[in-house]
Specification:
The protein has about 240 residues and is of the alpha/beta class. It has helices at about 15-45, 70-75, 95-110, 125-135, 150-155, 165-170, 220-225, and strands at about 55-60, 65-70, 80-85, 120-125, 145, 185-190, 195-200. It has a domain at about 55-205: Glutaredoxin (3-Layer(aba) Sandwich), CATH 3.40.30. Helix 4 links the parallel strand 4 (about 120-125) and strand 5. The longest helix has 29 residues, at about 15-45. It is globular, with a radius of gyration of 21 Å.
């Protein structure tokens, strides 16, 4: 049932176009409300699990030398910390193109998000390799951390180590192989207590037929823009590291 509000009209559009577009607009309004309802459910989650230990990462320090930093220190002045697991382990000759195109976009967002929450990308490669890649890529705002030497990825699904046999079977993962995954985790700090707040578990949910992996599409402007086009995102295009 169409909602009652004034509708737009573009030059020379047909009545059939306007009827279909109005129906689509109603669906878009419903999707907007559903998106906000899901976000409200996320915000209302009960307290998550307490951080088992204060994990230590590596980053490039102010003197351009690697330095060790605890997860608790990553919050800075904020009570919220976002960590995106970048699929760029030492076994890879080049990083995941899907992750890379997303971080190309997040680099711009990383100018703004730290006004509200701490934000980092983490990967298994040594920090010197990650820093060199970020410089070559031209990232100016996104901060990278190395998880080499800690078990963050295994604990918080930055890789497939903790997947159950049932989850491996659903997604077609080999029984024993451990591979990195594009997981986004959010942590919150209350005094001295740090808890896991939310993780992008949709990354590991089976895809619907005819879809590529869509675990973090809601933060990905590339797919959002392509979804507005007549061709859509299709199945024949996937971002590359270089074109």
């Amino acid at each position: 049932m169409a909602e009652e509000f004034a509708r737009m009209a573009f030059p020379n559009e047909s009545p059939d176009y306007r009827k279909a577009r109005n129906a689509l607009l109603d669906a878009e309004v419903a999707l907007r409300r559903q998106t906000e309802a899901v976000a409200a459910m996320r915000r209302a989650l009960p307290p998550g699990g307490e951080l088992p230990e204060d994990l230590v990462f590596e980053r490039i320090g102010a003197n351009f030398r690697p330095e060790r930093v605890k997860l608790s220190e990553l919050f800075g002045e904020h009570s919220t910390l976002l960590l995106y697991s970048y699929m760029f382990g030492p076994e890879r000759d080049s990083p995941c193109p899907g992750c890379t195109h997303l971080l190309d976009c997040v680099d711009g967002a990383a100018r703004h998000v730290p006004q509200k929450a701490a934000l980092y990308a983490v990967a298994k490669s040594p920090i010197a390799r990650l820093a060199a890649w970020a410089q070559a890529r031209g990232w100016q705002h996104l901060q990278l951390l190395s998880t080499a030497g800690n078990d963050y990825d295994a604990r918080y699904y930055g890789d497939t180590a903790a997947l159950t046999p049932a989850m491996r079977a659903e997604r077609g993962y080999p029984e024993s192989k451990v591979s990195d995954e594009p997981m986004l985790n959010v942590f919150v700090r209350d005094g001295e207590t740090i808890r896991h707040f939310w993780g992008s578990e949709l990354v590991f949910a089976p895809e619907d037929p005819g879809q590529n992996h869509r675990g973090l599409d809601f933060i990905d402007p590339v797919w959002g823009l392509l979804d507005t086009t007549p061709e859509g995102r299709g199945m024949d295009f996937f971002p590359k590291v270089n074109y």
